[in-house]
Amino acid sequence: MTGENNPIGSITVSPQAIATIAYHAALESYGVVGLAHKNVVNGWAQVLVKDPAHGVEVHYDGTNINIDIYIVVEYGTRIKSVANSVANTVRYHVEKALGMRVNQVGVHVRGLRVSESE
User: How far apart are CA 43 and CA 46, in angstroms?
Assistant: First the structure.
């Protein structure tokens, strides 16, 4: 948990709350179809995740916030550009919400998806 003490009281933010912020920020990024589970077992088809606890890991050691996010990218987009965009968007939104610096955002591309035609 991240925390801050001041004369009025203390503020703590759970890793789950940070994961939720990162989850929504990643979904805002161009080219992201959804988030995926961290572990892919025996080559099973990946299922898109709607629960941020499964697609985002937050590590806080008392000074540094490190975030790992597992995404599924839309087929046909530049993967490197999408990953950079996700990292920057997640960092910006988490830092803005917490008022604390994010040390690292690791973006892990877990698959590609063809989006549905409209």
Answer: 8
